[in-house]
Amino acid sequence: MLLSAEHIYLTTSSYVSFGRMALIGLLFAVLLLRSCETQGSSDVTSLFVQRGEDVHLEVTEPVQLNIKMDLFWKFNTTNTIGKLSYNNQPVLFDRYEERAEIFVQNQSLLLKNLQQNDTGNYVALVTGAKDRKVAEYNVIVQEPVSPVDLTVNSSSSDNCNFTVTCRTRGSHSSKTFRCDNRSCSEERGEETTTSINVYVDEGFIICNHSNKVSWKQDRKKVDFVCGAAPVTNEAVIVSGIIGALFAGLLVAFSICRFIRCRRKNCENTIYEVPQNTGPGQPLNRSPTEDASTSSPTSTYALVTFHTGPDQSTKTKNTTMPETVYAQVNRTSKPKSPQQPTQS
């Protein structure tokens, strides 16, 4: 069976593509394996030390030396500081004899009186059939920062905004900030290897000059005279609106209730001044005599005490009327008496 040229070309292209993919996968696996092998020794600890101070470097994993193994402390790979052998005293080399110390108990290294040229990489290496890195440090030696001088100038008539300048002594570098009663923002300044920061704290404007190992400050007392800032908090505004609406509804409800109660009291109360009754007319009548007297009503009236006919012959004393609040029953009109029939 003969294959066409096109079929042979497609088959060859497929094999080539498969081979490329396999090669890429193999390279990726090799790189992953190498990264896993070196992961344990790739951790580097950075240490900042002020010039003239000491630093103590320790191994990061336990070390058990034997007759075939030695431990070396090295600086920048090529310079050997010293070594520690099995059952032997530590040995220090050249320039480190008076400036370094290796401890047998934990294989740590002490470096004394560090200077700028001591900045670099320090490694603890166990040598034998296979070398093993048991510690690595990046030591950075820094000078202490210089003192600073802070100058404060008012930039407004209300003593609320200030322009301040923080200048370092010796290096002649400076930065300018604008400050209010809450914070400061940088306006201009020079690039420096140290940090110059200005901030406000409890009525003081403070200039802080620092690096990783030291800091210096200068502060000035300032009397801020600022108007009250407008409230822009949306939550406060919404709460005020809701409170006002609630208060309005409460007032409207109270007014409506008062009007309803007043109308109800007016319907159930009759204000009447009773007339003087005759001597023979009873004040109280039975509820069955008249439907209009079925329910008592409240009456506020000015009344006088009734005097009977038997007092006509007696000496009458003039009495002043008294104000009496009483509950009286409404009486029905008396029926006219029948005329006697004459015989």
From TrEMBL:
Q: Which residues cross the membrane?
A: 235-255
Give a Gene Ontology cellular component term annotated to this protein: membrane
Note down the stretches annotated as region Disordered: 271-343
Bias kind Polar residues: ranges: 274-301, 309-343
**What are the UniProt keywords, alphabetically?**
Glycoprotein, Membrane, Signal, Transmembrane, Transmembrane helix
Q: Where in the cell is it found?
A: Membrane
Q: What is its main location?
A: membrane
Which superkingdom, per the lineage? Eukaryota
Listed Gene3D superfamilies: Immunoglobulins
The identity of this protein, by name, is: Uncharacterized protein LOC108884313
The record lists the organism as Lates calcarifer (Barramundi)
